[in-house]
From TrEMBL:
It comes from Actinopolyspora saharensis. It comes from the Bacteria. This is Uncharacterized protein.
Length: 213
């Protein structure tokens, strides 16, 4: 498959495996979308807190912002977000350099909320390879004996931040690894697809929607 001039794009949601999660389905003391705002503030991540979604089979909350120059270029050439993983898999081929649309979203972090720390960590770790990642668990979980010797040790190995929450608010249990989204960061087929999905969600949250000509 080759890219056509102007980054001809296809939006194939049947291959995207994207779904929006119910905000109260994580066993936490408040809706996830509300808790995520406080968690992201504690983490000092920049960007918009997007709706909870299932991505790569994991329930997560992405935090991202548009890359102005790349977004403007894609609007000019009519390059909409591409959600077809098969097509995106070709974008990292050496021969495709300079023939694919630029990444128009910057994913500043991925938050994984869950009632069990193992579930949350399993959700967060795949994203920690290309962005900041954090988990959010109920306070009674983090207060259990052995939490430090199990969850925190494993989270530290992957550079994942750990937060807990109860009716009194958010508490940081472990700071995560600082992740710099530098141009030199190697892009993979997975990270590029995640970027396109997040770009699509960013545009859906914008008002008014951009014109693609």
């Amino acid at each position: 498959m080759t890219a056509t001039p102007g980054y001809a794009a296809r939006d194939d949601r049947s291959n995207g495996r994207i779904s929006v999660c119910p905000t109260g389905a994580h066993g936490l003391p408040a809706p996830v979308d509300e808790l995520a705002e406080s968690a992201v503030e504690a983490l000092e991540w920049t960007g918009s807190v997007l709706s909870p979604m299932r991505l790569l089979g994991r329930r997560i909350v992405p935090v991202a912002e548009l890359v102005p120059d790349a977004h403007a270029e894609r609007v000019c050439v009519g390059s909409e977000p591409v959600l077809d993983r098969t097509e995106i898999a070709t974008w990292v081929w050496p021969e495709m350099t300079d023939r694919v649309p630029p990444a128009a979203a910057r994913v500043s972090g991925v938050l994984a909320p869950a009632r069990h720390w193992r579930t949350a960590l399993t959700a967060a770790v795949p994203f920690a390879r290309f962005t900041s990642a954090a988990i959010l668990v109920p306070r009674h979980v983090s207060d259990r004996e052995g939490f430090v010797s199990t969850c925190l040790i494993r989270a530290r190995q992957f550079g994942v931040a750990v937060l807990s929450t109860d009716e009194h608010g958010i508490r940081t249990e472990l700071e995560g690894r600082a992740f710099e989204d530098a141009p030199s960061t190697e892009q993979t087929a997975v990270s590029r697809w995640v970027n396109e999905v997040v770009y699509d969600q960013l545009l859906a949250s914008e008002a008014p929607a951009p014109s693609w000509g």
